[in-house]
């Protein structure tokens, strides 16, 4: 009876897995034959808790037997290039209520600007989440220039407002995405952090498309193991552009283990960039610090993080700033992605968050479409909010 069982158990496992021999092949061998858009699952041992052993101490990915590899047969798309996308902002903002620029220009086009008018401008800036400091600075600078230059003509006032807004958004900041590895043969590693629902997974998917459009080889790491659907969501984004997704084989697995595997996979594949999606629940600062700290430490053993992008929802105003503060302290943020800019008339958050963290907005989300992610540019952004 025992002998029969010994034969039946592996047989049942093979049948349940579709009978494929790939189930028993170590990842390193299997991967050479993988089609693009592949999903790699890794059985993870540790849990997300900080006390768990670092996954780098677990068996390296190449020696771990792979489990199911459900490759979705989706047609591979050719994503659109990212340049020039920010011009869409104007249309999107026009549809999102009364944009900041229109409200400012309505006041500035009044005949004689009174004290009340300047107060109204400051209030408008505050309502658009620019923040008290920058709003005061802009009003002072604009007021002085209007007075000194004796400008009354609406077009000239508009030009001054544009200059002052561009200055506030700071065109001098380095907004280049660091997606190249530090050494030859090493991928760039971009970790994406932020609270639930801000658009992290969507941003990773859209960013993968941007990079694929630039002919870069990308690997995705689904280290958001907290939300059940996040890995599926990411995998779908990856499959659409022929990009491999490394994910855990169960929910709640150790995110650091998945991130580590993704980077190792990226190296093995000769990828240019590995994008790591995280859960980053804001349960408490210590927990967040443990989770992101552990991912960073573990990933760095394979390749250093070249970019840590904080995803913020532009519609959340002051709340977003509080999140930015916490993530800025725990995650070593190097760039900001402001999503849902299409759904708010409050573009001022760009200024406030850059001031808060001292790091630039590098990308903006302009909608739910796959190519609705644009590289940020101070002048184009201001033109977008000022409208025609
Ligand atoms: N309008 C608009 N919607 C967006 C944008 N970016 C993301 N979204 C939407 O925001 C919602 C949440 O996005 P996700 O990518 O799932 O957010 P997440 O941060 O990964 O969420 P968790 O996995 O729960 O942490 C989705 O419905 C997205 O389509 C954007 O730029 N504009």
Automatic annotation (TrEMBL):
Summary of subunit composition and partner proteins: Part of the signal recognition particle protein translocation system, which is composed of SRP and FtsY.
Pfam families: SRP54 (PF00448), SRP54_N (PF02881)
Membrane topology: Peripheral membrane protein
Described purpose of this protein according to its UniProt entry: Involved in targeting and insertion of nascent membrane proteins into the cytoplasmic membrane. Acts as a receptor for the complex formed by the signal recognition particle (SRP) and the ribosome-nascent chain (RNC).
Source organism (scientific name): Xylanimonas oleitrophica
Family statement drawn from the similarity comment of this UniProt entry: Belongs to the GTP-binding SRP family. FtsY subfamily.
Any single Gene Ontology cellular-component annotation: plasma membrane
Low complexity bias spans: 43-58
Keyword Mitochondrion: no
Catalysed reaction equations from the record: GTP + H2O = GDP + phosphate + H(+)
Keyword entries, A-Z: Cell membrane, Cytoplasm, GTP-binding, Hydrolase, Membrane, Nucleotide-binding, Receptor
Localization annotation: Cell membrane; Cytoplasm
MF terms (GO), sorted A to Z: GTP binding; GTPase activity; signal recognition particle binding
Binding site for GTP: 194-201, 277-281, 339-342
Domain spans labelled SRP54-type proteins GTP-binding: 360-373
Gene: ftsY
Record GO biological process: SRP-dependent cotranslational protein targeting to membrane
EC id: 3.6.5.4
Top enzyme category: hydrolase
Full protein name: Signal recognition particle receptor FtsY
Span list, region Disordered: 34-58
InterPro entries associated with the record: AAA+_ATPase, P-loop_NTPase, Signal_recog_particl_SRP54_hlx, SR_rcpt_FtsY, SRP/SRP_N, SRP54_GTPase_dom, SRP54_N_sf
Superkingdom field: Bacteria
């Amino acid at each position: 009876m025992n002998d029969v069982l010994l034969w039946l158990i592996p047989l049942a496992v093979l049948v349940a897995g579709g009978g494929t021999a790939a189930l028993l092949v170590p990842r390193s061998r299997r991967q050479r034959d993988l089609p693009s858009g592949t999903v790699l699952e890794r059985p993870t041992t540790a849990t997300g808790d900080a006390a768990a052993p670092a996954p780098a101490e677990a068996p390296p990915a190449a020696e771990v037997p792979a489990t199911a590899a459900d490759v979705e047969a989706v047609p591979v798309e050719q994503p659109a290039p990212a340049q020039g996308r920010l011009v869409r902002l104007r249309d999107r903002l026009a549809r999102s209520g009364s944009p900041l620029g229109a409200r400012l220009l309505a006041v500035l086009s009044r005949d004689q600007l009174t004290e009340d008018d300047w107060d109204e401008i400051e209030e408008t800036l505050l309502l658009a989440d620019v923040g008290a400091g920058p709003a005061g600075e802009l009003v002072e600078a604009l007021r002085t220039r209007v007075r000194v230059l004796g400008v009354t003509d609406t077009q000239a006032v508009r030009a001054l407002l544009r200059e002052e807004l561009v200055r506030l958004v700071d065109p001098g900041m380095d907004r280049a995405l660091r997606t190249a590895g530090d050494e030859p043969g090493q991928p760039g590693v971009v970790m994406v952090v932020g609270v639930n629902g801000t658009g992290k997974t969507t941003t990773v998917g859209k960013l993968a498309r941007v990079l694929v459009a630039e002919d870069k080889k990308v690997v995705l790491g689904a280290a958001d193991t907290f939300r059940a659907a996040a890995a599926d969501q990411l995998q779908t984004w990856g499959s659409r552009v022929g990009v491999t997704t490394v994910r855990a084989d169960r929910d709640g697995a150790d995110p650091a283990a998945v991130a580590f595997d993704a980077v190792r996979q990226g190296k093995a594949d000769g990828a240019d960039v590995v994008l790591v999606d995280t859960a980053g629940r804001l349960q408490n600062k210590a927990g967040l610090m443990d989770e992101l700290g552990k991912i960073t430490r573990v990933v760095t053993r394979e390749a250093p993080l070249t970019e840590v992008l904080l995803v913020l929802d532009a519609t959340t105003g002051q709340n977003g700033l509080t999140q930015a503060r916490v993530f800025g302290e725990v995650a070593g943020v190097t760039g900001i992605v402001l999503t849902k800019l299409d759904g708010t008339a409050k573009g001022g958050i760009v200024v406030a968050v850059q001031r808060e963290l001292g790091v630039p907005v590098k990308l903006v989300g302009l909608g739910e479409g796959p190519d609705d992610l644009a590289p940020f540019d101070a002048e184009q952004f201001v033109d977008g909010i000022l409208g025609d």
